[in-house]
Amino acid sequence: MAPNGATPPPSSLPTTTAKTTRRTTATKSLFTASKTLEEHISGSGTRTDITNIPSARKILITHGLVLPTTGSALKQLAAAVFELSLSTNTGATHSEPLRAIAILMNDIDQALDTDHLIDKICALMGGPIATLDEKIKTLEQFTEKHVTALDEAVTKRHPGSDGPRSYASVTKAGIPAPLNKILAHSDAQARQILIDRRSVFASNTLKDLSESQLVAKATLALELMKEAGHATPDKISILSARKLPHGGIIYEMESATSAEWIATPANRSAFLEHFGPEVIVKDRAYHIIVENVPISFNPLAASSIADIEKKGGLKHNTISRI
Asked: C-alpha distances in angstroms, 314 versus 68, 289, 319?
């Protein structure tokens, strides 16, 4: 203490002044990417339940924002962001960027005016479509005139008739009704395959299935062949199934070509592998009456049947039974 009330000398200890530097929006970037967009949506590293569109709509509805289910929602979202920027809990550091985002969203919404865009497209396409319709109509008229001129020329060339007839039309016109029936039956037979038990002692696993179920079973076998990498005809299909009294099944294919394809040994084996056990694809048999058979012929001897096949130029096992 200084004597006689004199003013004490100033302290020799130095004084320091601390300056606190506040970070502003200019010194800290709010939008530096810390995660990918997918990570933000999934909520990776964040405790949140908002990870998809339904949960996002639900939280917005809770806060009074109902978005339309169709069309653009940018206008409503922009208005909501504006309101959020005015919140008392949002400081200037965040309110200004929020306003900027809202302004840009509103601008994008105006640029994506759907109704205006559709009107523009319709206006641009209206002219070419009208022109195309006019040309199509002109082409139809020209074609109709051309066909009429051809018909008139044919009538003049062949008076008293409807025009020249092709060889096929002439031959078909002269076919008797019974022969037509025979030809149709022969064509149907060419499209058929016969599936039967491997032997009379094998269990008949097909007897309890309906004809529609039998068609589905064969169709599934074809599909399994394709999945297994087996090449099949493009349009191969099973049209129908008919159960025979002895337990066999006659399947009708869509074409004779498909029936021949299944009859091929390799394709037959692959088909039966997926169709089921204890069944075979039988070759179609034809009943033939043979006259003047020697009484010495033994129909039960396999060697006798093989001898007939050899002398007749037939393949082995062509004759199924006598």
From this structure: 80, 17, 8
